[in-house]
Design brief:
By secondary structure, this protein is mainly alpha-helical. The chain has helices at residues 2-27, 37-68. α1 (2-27) crosses α2 (37-68).
Length: 75
């Protein structure tokens, strides 16, 4: 189940990167030409995926730090 979740997150990030590249190509074609849209979409997707993984890692660490503390404040 965990592997399927990772593939879903990866696919969503690649899709978001593709949409980001498409938006730039359509709204600012002088900055991102059509010939590079696929490469920029792939790179954007990987950047989004790495960002999501860093945020997930930080969230899990933050959450585990809060649940490891005793309820009485450690006294």
């Amino acid at each position: 189940m965990a592997l399927a979740r990772e593939w879903i997150i990866f696919a969503l990030c690649l899709g978001a990167g593709g949409h980001l590249a498409l938006g730039f190509v359509l709204h600012a074609p002088e900055l991102w030409p059509w010939s590079r849209a696929g490469l920029y979409g792939l790179v954007s997707g990987f950047a989004i995926y790495i960002s999501v993984q860093v945020i997930r890692f930080a969230w899990i660490r933050f959450k585990s730090d809060r649940t490891d503390r005793p309820l009485d404040g450690g006294v």
